[in-house]
Amino acid sequence: MNSQENEQMPEHKQVSLITGSSRGIGRALAIRLARRGGTVVVNYKRNEDLAKQVVAEIALAGGHGFAVQADVETTEGVTALFDEVANRCGRLDHFVSNAAASAFKNIIDLGPKHLDRSYAMNLRPFVLGAKEAVKLMDNGGRIVALSSYGSIRAYPTYATLGGMKAAIESWVRYMALEFAPYGINVNAVNGGLIDSDSLEFFYNVKGMPAMQGVLDRIPARRAGTVGEVADTIAFLLGRGASYITGQTLVVDGGLSVVAPPFFADADDDLALPPRPTRTPQTA
Known about the structure:
Organism: Paractinoplanes ferrugineus
Pfam family, one: adh_short_C2
Number of helices: 8
Keywords: Oxidoreductase
Family: Belongs to the short-chain dehydrogenases/reductases (SDR) family.
Protein name: Enoyl-[acyl-carrier-protein] reductase [NADPH] FabL
Strand content: 15-25%
């Protein structure tokens, strides 16, 4: 475990720790929080160069940042990460559990190592990280976990990750109950099809149907962006969400509210018409 600092530690504003924040949603969130002028701890596992780039972008956005290499798949990595935050910052306002990984396989093909790794990479770092975060939130705080569409719907090869994401959402509710007396809110953000490296990886699994077939059925008719998810997390970390806890906010363009038969498959008799407009009134 090592760290990379961009400047001397400033006087405290808000301190945010985001796991897996060298790219994707974590990176987008780090930049948004930097615009609020706070300190952002960028956690990464392997790619130090990407992490340094995020730290530089944080500085350009008006914040302060430093990168910490720690493998949160291990309990030692989680402990080392929070030790570094405690030593460098002395406190914490926001903990965002964003790092995730899993094997995409049918259940019949899953072995014990796949189940163990999914637990170690997705659920355990969130629970252990939240416990450590509470110790540093001496003036209240916010905890947010990243979930996904697979926690509430079933689709091919996603059982091991979807099951862990469902468990995360359940843990969010229990944490919200137990951490409320400390002034700490705990929520989750459930993303649908979000345009990211992870989405491309999933849809490149051998035999997976084409992504466009799913996009055509989403009411928004497109994938979401990492920025849209980051904006939702940033909202939960802000003042406007002070009375929201124990909830999972879904960011999926309406994907989870539709079911067959789909409008996208209907013929012209059922096709949605163009948006109606008002006819100007004549005097």
